[in-house]
Write a structure and sequence with these properties.
Elements: H1 4-12, E1 23-27, H2 33-40, E2 44-48, E3 65-66, E4 80-86, H3 105-119, E5 120-131, H4 147-156, H5 173-185, E6 190-194, H6 201-204, H7 209-221, E7 234-241
Parallel strand pairs: 1-2, 1-4, 2-3, 4-5
Antiparallel strand pairs: 5-7, 6-7
């Protein structure tokens, strides 16, 4: 069964971008429950995951899921109207898909994005979400490469990002602009923009006073003037193939 976090991301975010005629690819589907859920709602969903597929859960839909990394060869000649990767990009190029960068992580991330664009139909889009390296707090990950991060985790139980560390596995807005410029120089034809993430369910789905202030903060830092700054905790990258 799909967990609440993934269900809310699909219901409140993904379904705004797709319709039941769209061929949709999910990157990093974990146990496969996202594809089971989307297929149960009659969406033409496919998924890939190189590490965590639960074969028992995907028996009935195994032809729609591949145990693979992102590449132009997945699902043969099939191309997609929409591809998404929610909180997956930061693990691309990491050892065992964790949070320790491999030596060739940058080339792997370049290949990941290039493969996505190649697998899109003309005018197809992709949506990628990931934490912002320059935002000091990282709710979802422990930055164990850093003594400073270890200190904050052990004393205050807070996960912090260390933006200046070369071992930081996150990207910032500048990193994305740089890698997208490389892809354009290789002849790929696409447009991109950074989306307003003030509504992102992974952060805003909870209720209560604390969540109220989080939502208010996200609305402020997602105005265009501040969106690409160190104040914004999450990056939402949308790419459209031309």
């Amino acid at each position: 069964m799909i967990n609440n976090k993934n269900k809310e991301r699909i219901d409140e975010l993904l379904l705004k971008y797709i319709n039941k005629k769209s061929k949709v690819l999910a990157c990093g589907v974990g146990d496969g429950s996202e594809i089971v859920y989307l297929r149960s709602k009659d969406y033409q969903a496919y998924g890939i995951d190189p590490s965590r597929l639960d074969k028992k859960k995907i028996t009935k839909i195994k032809k729609f899921i591949e145990n693979s990394e992102m590449s132009p060869n997945i699902f043969g000649k099939l191309k997609f109207d929409f591809i998404y990767a929610f909180e997956v990009f930061e693990h691309v190029g990491c050892i065992n898909y964790g949070t320790i960068l491999s030596k060739d992580y940058y080339n792997k991330r370049l290949f990941f994005l290039k493969s996505i664009i190649k697998k899109l139909k003309k005018n197809g889009s992709c949506f990628i979400t990931t934490g912002n390296k320059n935002f000091i707090i990282d709710i979802g990950h422990f930055h164990k490469y850093s003594p400073i991060a270890k200190f904050f985790k052990s004393i205050l139980n807070i996960n912090i990002s260390v933006p200046i560390s070369k071992q930081n596995f996150l990207f910032n807005y500048r990193d994305f602009k740089k890698i997208l410029l490389i892809l354009k120089s290789q002849g790929l034809n696409f447009d991109y923009n950074f989306e307003d993430m003030s509504f992102y369910p992974s952060i805003t789905r909870k209720t209560g006073l604390k969540s109220f202030f989080i939502r208010a903060y996200l609305k402020i830092v997602n105005i265009k003037l501040l969106r690409e700054s160190f104040l914004n905790p999450i990056i939402g990258l949308k790419i459209k193939k031309r």
